[in-house]
Prior knowledge:
cytoplasm; nuclease; two-stranded parallel sheet
Amino acid sequence: MQTACQAVQHQRGRRQYNKLRNLLKDARHDCILFANEFQQCCYLPRERGESMEKWQTRSIYNAAVWYYHHCQDRMPIVMVTEDEEAIQQYGSETEGVFVITFK
């Protein structure tokens, strides 16, 4: 999704961002880039005083929940993050949307 892609660009650098973009462009992977910031039900404005990372995490989680419901709750959604606080906050908030880390 768009916000996750931008987070990679800002937090991981241009090299990782380009790797991600190339994966998305490769037809063998059958991937799309969902522009969640332009979808009315997924967009969340940044709150006053909220860090960019917290806003991105909140936006990504909100879009994951929206997509889960869009799929009529039939397909579990997995959000991967390195933010332990996000795992604690969102990990058990919505049944069918899992927030995990690979650490």
